Amino acid sequence: MRITQGTTSLQHSLPFQAKPLFQSSTIAGFECGLVQGGRHYLLVTTRHIAQSRMLDHYRIAREHRMTTVRDGLVPGHHAGEHLAAARRAGVEAIWDLSHYHRNQDPVRCARIAAEASLSVNGPGRLWLCPVNEPSLYPSIAGMPRHEAIDMAVTMACVARDHHPDVGILTNDPITGVGDRQFEATDAIVSAVHVDVVGVNYYPHTARTSLVKVLMATWRRYRKPIMVSETSWHDGHPVHHRRYPGLNKGTWLRHVSEQVDIARFHGANVVGICWYPIVDCPPWHAPQSRNRWSHGLIRNDLSVDPWLSAELGRVAMSDAA
């Protein structure tokens, strides 16, 4: 699979220009997963907690004009502290409630998130992604998919029972256009009002072009859609084999161009989330000093130069 670089941007000729749904159309995603059978808590190993580097991470995201983030109000962390940190940093957050967690009390989790948000932010909109990638719960969390879907629906409904303005994002790996790709999202959309449908799309799992995936998703749901996860892993051999010569910056440009084409054809694509924005230890080695090179922010708080430069170009383009 090859990419022709230097495609002319369509952004100034798009027929569909909806009012922005989020503060920034490029979104910083902070990995909040519980992986390796519950042995690796990525919020902890990336030090993205209120008592550590959370505010530093938000500052770097804001410096790159990413004022919307995707983060976690997941079990094991104080919801009020995370909400307050985001507020202090001046970022708008979409909060995961369960990211490969086998949540023992989803009702309590959603209620705590809703009530903490009212306490910290008042009645302003609370954006939630109740369950990250329910299709992958059987393989990663050991939970049947239907239980993960039920958990997502339950938490969405409970949050809305306890907060007057809750926006719901779904997300799942949607890398092709066959009906099976959409089964988990279909089930959630049919059970509860969903505001944004998320598409997780990575170089190593893509089955067809992103524009085809976005158009299929738009035509199926006729709801705002988001590239809710994408990134480039410098050390992933499949990335380099499928897309030779690319780096993080050129991958973001490719994704942006695919989004522009989808918008040109009428799709309401509301944002692109780079996930994760912080380099993480390998999932199988939480104590490792090595980091997977897939984010903007490195372990020493320096930044990837290619991605940083492309984010700057995107910010200038958005401001034009």
Fraction of residues in β-strands: 5-15%
Query: How many runs of DSSP E, i.e. beta strands?
Result: 10
Q: List unreliable stretches of 5+ residues.
A: 1-9
* CATH homologous superfamily placement: Glycosidases
Summarize the helices and strands and which ones pair or pack.
Blueprint: E1 26-29, E2 34-35, E3 40-41, H1 42-45, H2 54-63, E4 68-72, H3 79-89, E5 92-96, H4 106-121, E6 126-129, H5 137-140, H6 145-162, E7 166-173, H7 183-191, E8 196-200, H8 210-221, E9 225-230, H9 237-242, H10 248-264, E10 269-274, H11 305-319
Parallel strand pairs: 1-4, 1-10, 4-5, 5-6, 6-7, 7-8, 8-9, 9-10
Antiparallel strand pairs: 2-3
Helix pairs in contact: 2-3, 3-4, 4-6, 6-7, 8-10, 10-11
Plain-language structure description:
- With 320 residues, the protein is of the alpha/beta class.
- It has a single domain (11-319), classed as Glycosidases (TIM Barrel), CATH 3.20.20.80.
- It is built from eleven helices and ten strands.
- The strands form two sheets. An eight-stranded parallel barrel has the order 1-4-5-6-7-8-9-10, surrounded by five helices.
- The two termini are 32 Å apart.
